[in-house]
């Protein structure tokens, strides 16, 4: 039977949603980008720019911006939701009014819902009738992708059809798309690395240097594996792009907003000031609360994540937290 779906859909016209729409557009897919902001819609449709979120970069002419979720649902077989986790359910619920069970829904967001601790793919399943669900995650700083620098991502799904069709829609000469079936591991890696990135920003804000960064990244990934095991992941996923890969990139530089949160905290700025003036969204702030509280409940020791939680949510002195991390009792004592 012929499909009516002739476009790829992206929900959320922020920096990541716009970049994903661009990747689809340059692959000659008709691409619908849903967003709520009228000025943004006009700018994309008339000038091929989304200057509020993707700066001066020109984006594909194959993108049509729209404020109609119904239009996206009627025309797109693959729909990617790139809305921050705090609003992900609200928008997915609305989308759920229009999609049919044969469509592919992907999350491109890297966070956990604070109230329910849900992953974004669980929300896609709960709020829509779609079963063909997946997640896109990996070391994906949007600016480098829009510059066309070689990058890669991962699409994870329990359905091979989802992987194959997503690769076809998004892979290009400068953007490689890998597939795997570990949805849980890919989603957790993409979320937990944001917590480690806040700590990395703190280390750089304090000018601690490379040994400290290496210590943090290695032990941060170890904590990712420990909580992942408790949740039933295949830890080998964490050694790939969605674990080590994404942790490296977000811990490396100030293109990451989570890193910038840590950096400015170390420079003495308040969390409120940072959230209002420096970063749009930094998923690690909420994710560290979710993971820390869960770890306490299930009795898993996550010292770095606890430290980030204490700094971010309990306003503890950064040097006191670092000292207590360094001086805590060794398993060998
Ligand atoms: N920026 C990146 O390089 C990047 C890369 C990979 C993953 N991500 C993830 O993608 C997700 C989205 O981040 P982003 O970078 O695009 O953020 P952003 O701040 O650039 O954009 C967020 C977008 O979501 C929209 N939005 C927020 N709340 C909304 C609501 N209630 N209703 C409708 N629209 C709403 C905003 O209007 C905006 O268009 C995050 O989970 C992030 O971790 C980002
Ligand atoms: O800017 P951040 O810290 O949200 O990171 C963006 C991406 O997740 C990097 O892969």
UniProtKB/TrEMBL annotation:
Where does this protein hold substrate? 110, 257-258
Residues given in the record as NAD(+) binding sites: 12-17, 257
Which pathway does it serve?
Membrane lipid metabolism; glycerophospholipid metabolism
**Residue ranges of every copy of the Glycerol-3-phosphate dehydrogenase NAD-dependent N-terminal domain listed in the record:** 8-160
GO terms under cellular component: cytosol
Where is the protein localized?
A: Cytoplasm
Q: Where is NADPH bound in this sequence?
A: 15-16, 36, 53, 110, 257, 281, 283
* Gene Ontology biological process terms in this record: carbohydrate metabolic process; glycerol-3-phosphate biosynthetic process; glycerol-3-phosphate catabolic process; glycerophospholipid metabolic process; phospholipid biosynthetic process
The answer on whether this UniProt entry bears the keyword Signal reads: no
Q: Domain of life, per the record?
A: Bacteria
Q: What class of enzyme is it?
A: oxidoreductase
Q: Where is the active site?
A: 193 (proton acceptor)
- Keyword field contains Cytoplasm: yes
- Gene Ontology molecular-function annotations: glycerol-3-phosphate dehydrogenase (NAD+) activity; glycerol-3-phosphate dehydrogenase (NADP+) activity; NAD binding
Location, primary (coarse class): cytoplasm
EC number(s) on file: 1.1.1.94
Q: Give all residue intervals belonging to the Glycerol-3-phosphate dehydrogenase NAD-dependent C-terminal domain.
A: 182-322
The alphabetized UniProt keywords are: Cytoplasm, Lipid biosynthesis, Lipid metabolism, NAD, NADP, Nucleotide-binding, Oxidoreductase, Phospholipid biosynthesis, Phospholipid metabolism
- The entry's sn-glycerol 3-phosphate-binding residues are 110, 138, 193, 246, 256-258
Known catalytic reactions = sn-glycerol 3-phosphate + NAD(+) = dihydroxyacetone phosphate + NADH + H(+); sn-glycerol 3-phosphate + NADP(+) = dihydroxyacetone phosphate + NADPH + H(+)
So what does this one do?
A: Catalyzes the reduction of the glycolytic intermediate dihydroxyacetone phosphate (DHAP) to sn-glycerol 3-phosphate (G3P), the key precursor for phospholipid synthesis.
Q: Which family does it belong to?
A: Belongs to the NAD-dependent glycerol-3-phosphate dehydrogenase family.
Q: What is this protein called?
A: Glycerol-3-phosphate dehydrogenase [NAD(P)+]
């Amino acid at each position: 039977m012929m499909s009516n779906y002739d476009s790829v859909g992206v929900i959320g016209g922020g920096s990541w949603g716009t970049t994903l729409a661009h990747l689809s557009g340059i692959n000659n897919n008709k691409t619908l980008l849903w967003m709520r902001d009228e000025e943004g819609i006009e700018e994309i449709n008339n000038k091929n720019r989304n200057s509020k979120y993707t700066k001066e970069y020109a984006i594909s002419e194959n993108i049509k911006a729209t404020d109609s979720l119904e239009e996206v649902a009627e025309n797109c077989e693959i729909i990617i939701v790139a809305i921050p986790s705090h609003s992900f359910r609200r928008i997915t619920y609305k989308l759920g009014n229009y999609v049919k069970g044969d469509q592919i829904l992907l999350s491109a967001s890297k966070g956990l819902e604070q109230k329910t601790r849900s992953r974004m793919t669980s929300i896609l399943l709960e709020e829509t009738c779609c079963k063909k669900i997946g997640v896109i995650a990996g070391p994906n700083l949007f600016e480098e992708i829009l510059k066309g620098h070689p990058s890669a991502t991962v699409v994870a799904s329990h359905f091979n059809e989802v992987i194959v069709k997503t690769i076809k829609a998004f892979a290009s000469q400068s953007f490689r798309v890998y597939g795997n079936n570990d949805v849980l591991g890919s989603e957790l890696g993409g979320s937990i690395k944001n917590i480690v990135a806040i700590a990395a920003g703190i280390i750089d804000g304090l000018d601690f240097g490379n040994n400290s960064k290496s210590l943090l990244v290695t032990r941060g990934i170890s904590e990712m594996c420990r909580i992942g095991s408790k949740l039933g992941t295949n830890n080998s996923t964490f050694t790939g792009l969605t674990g080590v890969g994404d942790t490296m990139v977000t811990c490396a530089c100030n293109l990451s907003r989570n890193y910038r949160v840590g950096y400015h905290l170390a420079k003495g700025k308040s969390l409120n000031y940072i959230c209002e003036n420096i970063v749009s969204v930094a998923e690690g702030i909420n994710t560290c609360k979710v993971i820390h509280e869960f770890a306490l409940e299930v009795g898993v020791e996550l010292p770095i994540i606890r430290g980030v939680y204490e700094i971010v949510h309990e306003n503890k002195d950064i040097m006191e937290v670092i000292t207590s991390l360094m001086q805590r009792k060794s398993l060998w004592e």
